[in-house]
Amino acid sequence: MLVGVVGPSGAGKDTLMEGARAALVGDPRFHFIQRSITRAAEAGGENHRPLNRAEFEAERAAGRFALWWEAHGLFYGIPAALPPGVAVANLSRTVLAEAARRMPLLVLEITAPPPVLAARLAARGRETEADIAARLAREAPLPPGLDVVRVMNEGPVEQGIARVVAALRAIP
């Protein structure tokens, strides 16, 4: 089964997934999937497999990605060969319907109330107040008909991690 993690900017997806990965490190059922991204390794953010655009295109043409998408000027992909058990990967909302057609999918939506999202984005210091408002306004709804578990991450990090771990452990 693929667990597709989605949510708005500022929801804390990377932080909670890092905590869940650490909490589940001894459980062989769970596999946290490293994405390939056309972004340099030293650019920060998640631990990803860096590829340049030509490398990404070659791997995509060779069928090495189960899913791939473009967002924010970058290309993202998850490997075609997913391990057995529960594979957990950050995805784009734009590929959820395709993922559900191809494999068993549970969507783990991590979110927070708009004022919390706005405060977290402002604390990053990378965008203006107008940019933050525009980012929060453009969040798209999930495609209909998907199996979705929503985790609200409005409190302490430990609480959010516990909620994600509980949601993952509840998967049959």
The CATH topology of the largest domain is given as Rossmann fold
The number of distinct structural domains comes to 2
Summing up helix and strand content along with how strands pair, one would put the structural category as alpha/beta
Q: Name the poorly predicted regions.
A: none
The CATH class of the largest domain turns out to be Alpha Beta
Q: Which CATH architecture of the largest domain is right? A: 3-Layer(aba) Sandwich
The shape is globular
Find the CATH superfamily of the largest domain: P-loop containing nucleotide triphosphate hydrolases
The CA-CA distance between the termini, in Å, is: 10 Å
Rg, please? 16 Å
**How many helices?**
6
Q: Summarize model confidence as the mean pLDDT.
A: 94
- Write the element-wise H/E pattern from the N-terminal end onward: EHEEEHEEEHEHHEH
Topology, number of strands: 9
Largest sheet: 5 strands, parallel
Helix content percent band: 25-40%
- Biggest sheet strand order reads 2-7-1-8-9
| Beta-strand content bin | 15-25%
Q: Could you write a compact summary of the structure shown?
A:
This protein is an alpha/beta fold. It has helices at residues 13-23, 53-61, 96-102, 114-124, 129-137, 157-169, and strands at 2-6, 30-32, 36-37, 49-50, 65-71, 74-79, 86-90, 105-111, 148-152. Helix 1 (13-23) crosses helix 6 (157-169) and helix 4 packs across helix 5 (129-137).
